[in-house]
Automatic annotation (TrEMBL), chain B:
One of its GO terms (molecular function) is phenylalanine-tRNA ligase activity. The keyword DNA repair does not apply. This is Phenylalanine--tRNA ligase alpha subunit. Tetramer of two alpha and two beta subunits. GO terms for cellular component: cytoplasm. The gene is pheS. Keywords: Aminoacyl-tRNA synthetase, ATP-binding, Cytoplasm, Ligase, Magnesium, Metal-binding, Nucleotide-binding, Protein biosynthesis. It catalyses: tRNA(Phe) + L-phenylalanine + ATP = L-phenylalanyl-tRNA(Phe) + AMP + diphosphate + H(+). One of its GO terms (biological process) is phenylalanyl-tRNA aminoacylation. Its EC number is 6.1.1.20. It is found in: Cytoplasm. Its cofactor is Mg(2+). Residues 109-329 form the Aminoacyl-transfer RNA synthetases class-II family profile domain. Its main location: cytoplasm.
Length: 657, 337
């Protein structure tokens, strides 16, 4: 909403410097975004929230300035002469569509340019002057906040109008010559020849529009059903200054004054005389309503002590009369709400009115009292595990990224993900961001590619959701070798107390992973994820050079398996026996399985470590330790024999030396 | 025998004093006091001596042993204090160190952790909930029925399955409140989505931290106090804040929080739309209708709610002038944090 200061000051006096005025307006809820200097004037660009259609007008803003300054607002009240002669029109109104319909007829007008002061003001608020009639209806709408429309009376045949809902599919040509096919349920006005003469709130019809030749005027100031206006506006992607007011709720108590004000300006600047009684169709009175405000409730919600006289004063500055009474020793205000404040419906709304004019920045500050809730809330989330793993990864050289959840179709296809299973946005911002990612890998590949020109070592990870199940995943990418990546994952599992995850060859064939250099990570209970080299074909397609290892972990599962409670074991009392065993193994023997076999050979084997790899020889360091006694060579010898025999039997591994 | 011991001691002391380094001392220790050292062999013989001599020889050899040990210790200290030979082992201490390889946590993670710690201190619990949301939790329960004009300010991305991507973390108010009883002190960090034209201060994906407190006596001053405490803890005690009234259908009274823009120090820049102030924390007292729909009696309980624009706060924290930098996975950016 553009508000020229000179126009505003016609309705309200203020000595506040414009910057200060802007700050105060912002504080009371009308955020001033820009102050523009034009000639000798200043124009405030004000953001009006959807609940305040009354402030889509200069007088509405003037009332707010009145509340800020305590000065009286002077809104022009127009009186018009009695009707001379009598021109007929019959209105058949549907009150569900149009709760109030106010109109009159003016005969003998002359179309010409509007007076300079109106033209100037319209230009300042970004409107193009057209002629005296159009300009006056626009001017009065911006002055009072109630939209009007003028029809050429002579073109309405016969003189009977009906407000109704469109059936859908009707053709309509607007006054600016554009053809529309109407959606269903738009509010329209038809004449009795079934011609649509008005697409209400959005555009007038060309069939009854004002032209140079217009002599007689049918002028209306209606109030329409906001929802229907909004739906029609959206269906046609059509907005107007009037529709913005109607869809938020035009002031049903303001139509009469608006109509009179416009009529008086028309008589003054276009001539003519009133030739009908004022038509005012309504089923309700549209008078101020009363809301009860309890003073203790006001103080309880605001958290301050405030004098009832101050409350009354604030309400008065907003144009609200209030009666004070005491009921059960509570002070209560009965407040009359003016019809332009349709947003005020309940006690809390008035509490806000008092608070905002009191000034939010005048409030003291406090912290909530009372007990601190300790019972776990629904959807409780513990971030500590995530933070711990992030620290381990960062400590191991990995940097964290956050990427978009929305990705392109191409990104999905490039790594062989099923389009059918991915959830699609029906109205994407662009094709680049059309699908909810079912994997973090596409974005990690793009991130890798982005860094490739600048860095030789790239290690990245992301914690993020995959969709549609919204599962939290931990994935990473690095141009280091498989064993380094695996080592970090093992470290993480160890830190989380996840026991014995095994890395098994990945047998499922998909296009993302290298078929012979990928492992699935399992525990006895669940599949935790995968780690492996990216298939060179995928890398080539993505433009990535060299070898790249990725990992993809189901973090939700991992956090369930995590044992964060640590348990102390005493330092062993009896010395261990440490021995190195070297085996010659057949090609492609999985050393992980061999280690496992050694481990389970005896309960006194504390650890088995791969010490050395040389051609076909694998050397293991085995630590034997008994909790209750010192081991003898004889005891260890027995176990050793068992290890050697089963290694030979199961893997064809021969002991060396 | 006595003479042999004395000679041995003197010989040892002479050699020890002229020893030049640790290795030499170690060797001498072995030679005299080691398992097969000269003095040790004598001591081993003591039990075989005639009874009358044992005591004297024993004392003498013990003295010798002590003297040699002390001499070795002394010489050791001397060598360490005046490390003559070590001078050859010069290194250039000014040459750069070798750093262990280290990655970087995303600035958003770092800021979120700070925020959650502050709220944790204030007794808040963390919750996390769905991004794929229903119209009910994202709009209806928050007093935003279909055809409400304020839906224009939250243009929504809809999904082919009929659900939508939440436009704010406020969707979690209803979800948490309907399943438990007050008092509540909750923060909900998470990703939000809007159909939005991308510019330096807007994105179609961004993070918020929703927070709300509901109890018997929660007031507007509590809201001002909480916002002020949190932002000053986060940005420093000199942080400049101002509050303004605003309208969101799910709060009444509604509050907007402005912080002096840290990108331009209040001079006006593209990030703060040239206002010098950045809007970072919309808030308000929870609307009675929202409490009611969540099964809470608004006459008995009151509450406040706020939403921190996390992405925006990260930008303001590090004077980054564009939200999009946070989703740009460029190590030249990440390595700065």
């Amino acid at each position: 909403m553009l508000v020229p200061l000179s126009w505003l000051k016609e309705y309200i006096e203020t000595d506040l410097p414009v910057k200060k005025l802007a700050d105060r307006l912002t504080e009371v809820g009308f955020s001033v975004e820009v102050i523009k200097k034009v000639e000798n004037d200043e124009i405030l660009e004000i953001e009006v929230t959807p609940n305040r259609p009354d402030c889509l007008s200069i007088s509405g803003i003037a009332r707010e300035v009145g509340a800020i300054t305590g000065n009286k607002v002077k809104i022009p009240k127009a009186e018009i002469p009695k009707a001379k002669g009598k021109l007929e029109i019959e209105i058949v109104n549907d009150f569900k569509l149009c709760p109030r319909y106010t109109a009159l007829i003016i005969d003998g007008i002359q179309i010409k340019p509007s007076p300079p002061f109106i033209q100037k003001r319209l230009k300042k608020i970004g409107l193009r002057p057209i002629n005296n009639l159009v300009d006056i209806t626009n001017y009065v709408m911006f002055e009072t906040g109630n939209p009007l429309h003028a029809f050429d009376y002579d073109k309405i045949t016969p003189k009977k109008l009906l407000t109704q809902k469109s059936k859908g599919g009707e053709k309509f040509e607007s006054v600016d010559g554009i053809s529309y096919v109407l959606p269903k349920d738009a509010i329209i006005i038809k004449d009795s020849e079934d011609r649509v003469i008005d697409l209400c709130g959005l555009k007038g019809g060309s069939n009854t529009g004002i032209s140079e030749q217009t002599n007689t005027l049918f002028l209306h100031a209606p109030v329409y059903n906001p929802v229907l206006i909004r739906r029609a506006s959206q269906a046609l992607s059509l907005r107007s200054d009037a529709s913005a007011i109607f869809e938020r709720g035009a002031n049903p108590g303001g139509t009469l004054n608006t109509l009179k004000r416009a009529a008086s300006l028309i008589l003054k600047y276009a001539g003519g005389e009133i030739t009908s009684e004022i038509i005012d169709l309504k089923k309700e009175k549209f008078e101020p309503w009363t809301i009860k405000l309890r003073h203790p409730r006001l103080e309880k919600i605001l958290g301050i002590k405030i004098n009832p006289t101050k409350v009354k004063e604030i309400l008065e500055s907003l144009g609200m009369e209030s009666k004070l009474k005491t009921q059960n020793s509570e002070i209560i205000y009965d407040i009359d709400i003016p019809t332009h404040r349709g947003d005020l419906k309940m006690e809390e709304d008035l509490i806000e009115e008092v608070a905002r004019i009191y000034g939010y920045n005048n409030f003291p500050k406090s912290l909530p009292l009372g007990e601190t809730p300790v019972e776990k809330i629904p959807f409780f989330k513990d971030f500590s595990l995530e933070e711990k793993i992030k620290q381990i990864l960062a400590g191991s050289g990995y940097s964290e990224i956050y990427t978009y959840s929305l990705i392109s179709k191409r990104a999905l296809e490039n790594i062989g993900l099923d389009l059918e299973k991915a959830l699609r946005v029906s109205n994407p911002v662009s094709g680049e961001y059309e699908y909810l990612r079912p994997s973090l890998i596409p974005n990690l590949l793009s991130a890798f590619l982005l860094n490739q020109p600048n860095f030789s070592e790239i290690k990245l990870f992301e914690f993020g959701k995959i969709y549609p199940e919204e599962k939290l995943m931990l994935s990473g990418i690095a141009n280091s070798d498989y064993y380094h990546v695996k080592g970090i994952l093992e470290l993480i599992f160890q830190e989380l107390g996840i026991e014995n995850p095994t890395f098994k060859p990945y047998v499922k064939r998909d296009i993302l992973y290298h078929p012979a250099k990928t492992a699935v990570i399992e525990t006895s209970r669940a599949l935790l994820g995968t780690v492996g080299e990216v298939n060179p074909a995928v890398l080539t397609k993505a433009g990535i050079k060299g070898k790249v290892v990725i990992f993809n972990l189901d973090f939700e599962l991992i956090s369930k398996l995590t044992r964060v409670v640590k348990k102390f074991f005493p330092i062993p009392e009896f010395p261990p026996i440490i021995e190195d065993l070297a085996f010659v193994i057949p090609p492609k023997t999985f050393v992980g399985d061999l280690i496992q076999l050694i481990k389970v050979s005896s309960s006194i084997i504390q650890s088995v470590e791969l010490l050395d790899v040389h051609e076909n020889t694998r050397t293991f360091r085995i630590i034997y330790q008994h909790p209750d006694k010192t081991l003898t060579d004889k005891e260890v010898g027995k176990i050793r024999k068992k290890i050697i025999e089963s290694a030979e039997k199961k893997f064809g591994a021969r002991i060396k030396g | 025998m006595e003479e042999k011991i004395l000679n041995l001691k003197n010989e040892a002391l002479a050699q020890i004093v002229s020893a030049k380094n640790q290795d030499e001392l170690e060797r001498l220790h072995q030679a005299y006091l080691g398992r097969k050292g000269k003095l040790s062999l004598i001591i081993k013989e003591i039990p075989n001596l005639p009874l009358g001599k044992r005591v004297d020889i024993g004392r003498l050899s013990n003295d010798a042993k002590k003297a040699i040990e002390e001499a070795i210790n002394r010489q050791q200290s001397a060598i360490l204090i005046k490390p003559k030979g070590l001078e050859k082992e010069w290194i250039d201490v000014t040459s750069p160190g070798i750093k262990p390889e280290k990655g970087h946590l995303h600035p958003q993670t770092q800021v979120l952790e700070k925020i959650l710690n502050i709220f944790n201190f204030l007794g808040y619990q963390v919750a996390q909930g769905p991004e794929i949301e229903t119209d009910w939790y994202n709009f209806e329960i928050l007093n935003i029925p279909k055809d409400h004009p304020s839906r224009d300010t939250m243009q929504t991305l809809y999904l082919d399955n009929g659900k939508l991507l939440r436009t704010h973390t406020s969707s979690m108010q209803g979800r948490v409140m309907e399943k438990a009883k007050p008092p509540f002190r909750v923060v909900v960090p998470g990703k939000c989505f809007r159909f939005e034209q991308v510019d330096p201060s807007h994105g179609f994906e961004f993070w918020q931290v929703e927070g709300f407190a509901v109890d018997k006596n929660i007031t507007l001053t509590d809201l001002f106090g909480t916002i002020s405490y949190v932002l000053k803890k986060l940005f420093g005690e000199k942080t400049m804040l101002k509050f303004a009234c605003t309208n969101f259908p799910f709060v009444e009274p509604g509050v907007d929080t402005y912080m002096k823009c840290t990108v331009c120090q209040g001079k006006g820049c593209s990030f703060c739309k040239n206002l010098g102030w950045s809007e970072i924390m919309p808030a308000g007292m929870i609307h009675p209708g929202v409490l009611e729909k969540s099964g809470i009696d608004p006459q008995k309980y009151s509450g406040f709610a706020f939403a921190i624009g996390l992405s925006r706060i990260v930008n303001l924290m590090y004077q980054m002038n564009d939200l999009r930098l946070l989703t740009l996975p460029d190590l030249r950016i990440l390595n700065q944090f």
